[in-house]
Amino acid sequence: MALLLPVKLIEEIVSHLEYASDINALARTHGTFYHVVSPMLYRHNVHHDNSSALSWGIEHGLATVQRSLAAGASANECDPDVLWRPMPLAVIEGHEDIVQYLYEQEGVNIRHTRPWLNPRHEDYENTPGSLLSLAAVHVHEALACFFMDHLPRPYHVDYPTSSDGRTPLMDAAEEGHLTIVQRLVDAGADIHAKDHRQMTPLVLSTRAGHLEVIQFLLQRGADPTITTDYLASTVEPADKTALLCVASARGNITLVQQLLESHGYDPNSRYTQDHSFMWNNLPTAIYWAVVRGHEEVVKVLLTHGTDACPSPGQMRLRKPLIEAIIQGSESMVSMLLSAGAYSNDPDETIGLEALKHAIPFEGIFRHLLTAGTGPTTAHCQDNETLIVTILASSRTTVVQMLIDQGINLAHHMHQANILHQAIRGGPVVLDLLVRAGKWNSYLLPEHLDQKVCKQALGIAASTGQVETLQWLLDRGFPVAPSSSPTVNLFAQAACTEASDTHAARTIDFLLKHGLDINQVIPYKTALAHVAVHYDMLMDRDAGRVRMRMLLDRGAHLLPPRSLPRPTGYKPYGSSSGTDVGRSFDLDEMIFKELEARREPWIAVEPIFRWAEYCARERLDWPGVKMVRQYSWRVRYPV
């Protein structure tokens, strides 16, 4: 009966459908409905979805294009998400039938250069374009021939130029499309034409390395001796700055000297075009020369008055001195300091001072100290002093420089501890400080309280360096179990940022010295510490590896099995007897162990209840699902 409904009634039904998907579903219910409803679907698309079906059809086939246009879509505009108008989009896609249809049936004028960008797109620009160039660039030979037969001016194949003076032949030559280059030249394209940058088709094909195109153009008479006067074409200040920056970045000393000495370029000019992120980061020539490591260019620029310490501006850039330090170039650092760069310059991007960046480069560090940089006034990240960072760096030569300057390291630690930072630097730093003999009261256990000693061992374990732990033990730091431990050394070792190999070596070292891998310190076992730590870092894969490392060395997921089961058997007492409820992965390991043990439900029910409660508190809904799955598997074993 529904198939006998009048068209008006069907249209009324469709008018109450809000979404295209609903209309489409109705159209697909029956062939009769499809023929009636399909045009309505396209009209809905025109009025409610910005005629998006048109651009989709241009990419996929003529039939959709015809239906969309019949429903009222414009042949001169696409939806706002598409950069091009319908005709150039069809050219880019290479659909000859759609191009012919838009030209012959819809009257799209292809004989004039016009803005072919979609006026509804946010990047629309009112600049002329060439359909012939689009066909040439995208290697659609048949369409290129079609547009050559419909030129804006008869036989003038070079007429459809772009806003930068590029002809279709230039575009095809640069892209290396030999067959289209041949057709354009046969049609009369000028092989000696130049764009606004004075580039010829031969120059463009040569720069891109298209040998066959080069050979063809030379055979057809292209003049290889024509010079490109890019200097004459570079007149805008921004273009001049860009040219000087490019010459500096490429290390072209001759060109840099020519621009500065013969053409009066300003060595301190800044490129400030907002649209270019790269230029904003490196706005002047000396930045580019330093970052690319061209020392001779840096020397030329400084000789011609380049500011060695330019203002960072609104972008708060790294100054050239900082860039030279990061490059590790002592000679460039020396040149910049001699030219007036301030040795205490901070890194404007992250607030670190020059000396912090120089720590890995001993020669540069020494050079900065000689230039008067004050190591005791410099600060690093998180309000750390430079002294703190240097001690933890393992750079003994740099530490020795500070000692040679007579600096009392212990007085410049801020809230850090000289022993703890030296431990992070390793045995070489510790030995150096002990030999200096000035800070033994801060370094050796006979002068320290028990808390500092325990913290020292924990920090050593966290470095993943067994040698550092051995150094502490050799000097009397107590690694043996104590009655009131406060630092879980196994947890520190398993949570190290060092490699898995170093973590395993440290854990084995602690086991060798009699520590209990299952001791609860404080309130958690090492397994629980590791699970929580890697959950916080959102690195569950690493957490599983480190937990397995502990389990393979004797860590317990559950208390050991008790003796024969009397009535009311409850070996776990409560959830406090396990590490359950702390993380998804640890819970899953514990539940697998429970399943393997085939414990009675009455003994383990509190564990599952607590685990589900904790998962809900963490808003861990996959965890809640996992707890329930294992609770059923444990309760009803197969």
From TrEMBL:
Keyword terms: ANK repeat, Repeat
Xref: SUPFAM superfamilies: Ankyrin repeat
Pfam families for the chain: Ank_2
The UniProt record lists the keyword Cell membrane: no
Entry GO terms, CC: cytoplasm
Positions of ANK repeats: 164-196, 197-229, 281-307
Claim: Lipid metabolism is one of the keywords in the record: no
Protein name as catalogued: F-box domain-containing protein
